[in-house]
Amino acid sequence: MIEDGLDLVAGRLRRARRVTVLTGAGVSAASGVPTFRGAGGLWRSFRSEDLATAQAFERDPALVWEWYAWRREAVASARPNAAHHVLAAWSRRCSGFVVITQNVDDLHVHAGTLGLVRLHGSLWELSCWRGCGAPPWRNEDVPLPELPPLCPSCGGLARPAVVWFGEALPSAAIDAAEAACECDVFLSVGTSSVVYPAASFLARARSRGAFTVEINTEPTPATDQVDLVLAGPADELLPQVDQRLA
Ligand code: BJW
Q1: pLDDT by residue (tens digit) across 159-184?
Q2: Is 182 helix (H, G, I), strand (E, B) or coil?
Q3: Does 120 participate in catalysis according to the annotation?
């Protein structure tokens, strides 16, 4: 019964000192941002190895940049939905609250989430493909005036500052995420739980005694591992949990 589940999560959250939420593309689905997997997901129309690897960029930077330019246009008009707003409100209310996100759309940032841990970078940041030493820079131009864009420091190719398959995640983000696995309640929201290392955090939190919850419209490999499943859209269920905390 969903009502019982909502009451249970709210009760756990009320008593918790440390709460960690791992989010994935499903959290932004209600904002109109396509997910990767499942019905309508990006990987239904595109092969990840053609677009989201360093090898793909090496082979055909123009093609990879076309795809990112198209996604930047799609995300530019997206606004945070009720799920982002609830998580942002909790982050402002509770000092032991951490959102770890795999999302590159920055909607958690736009919602005003404090202490956000971004595992896979941002669509709105670029870095030097050659690694000339220039730090990553912000670029919110839509459309991009030149494609592919160039590094302002060395004039070589720029790349999206996102984490592709086979690349290491930012070490500071990994450290922060691992520290946040030491928590009383861990919510896994809108992620298919198939991409590592993000998918490992739930088990890590559980092994340290956290009460674990999954919020998702579909079952995932995490579904059988959590203490409680709330099946449904994050933008509806998180506000219902929030109402119970009021
Ligand atoms: C809703 C909803 C609604 C819909 N409400 N829910 C261990 C085992 C096996 C493999 C590996 C392993 N460790 C590492 C690997 C390899 C690899 C990996 O995980 N592969 C697996 C796929 C097999 N991992 C890596 O390569 C990572 N790097 C790494 O490990 O480096 C090691 C290293 C160390 C030192 C030196 C060098 C290397 C990097 C992973 C990078 C992932 N990158 C992407 C692209 C980012 C850039 C971009 O956006 O273009 O990140 S792939 C893509 O998947 C993106 C996402 O962040 C990520 C996760 O997807 P997410 O968010 O879960 O979305 P979906 O679409 O999969 O799911 C959405 C869910 O929402 C669904 O379940 C829906 O049901 C649900 N939903 N509407 C609630 N309204």
Answers
A1: 999 999 999 999 999 999 999 999 99
A2: coil
A3: yes
Residue type, 71: R
Task: Decide if 216 contacts 21 (C-beta within 8 A).
Answer: no
- Pocket-forming residues, ligand 1, beta carbon under 6 Å: 24-26, 29-30, 35-38, 41, 52, 102, 104, 120, 162-168, 190-192, 194-197, 215-218, 220, 233-235
Q: Whose CA is nearest to atom 5 of ligand 1?
A: 233
- pTM, 2 dp: 0.97
3-state secondary structure of 214: strand
3-class DSSP state of 197: coil
Q: Where are the alpha helices (DSSP H) in 94-170?
A: 107-110
Residue 22, SS3 per DSSP: strand
CA distance 241 to 141: 37
Q: Are 36 and 110 in contact (CB under 8 A)?
A: no
Q: At what angle do helices 234-245 and 82-93 cross, to 10 degrees?
A: 40
Contacts of 131 (CB under 8 A, 6+ apart): none
Pairing of β 137-138 and β 121-128? antiparallel
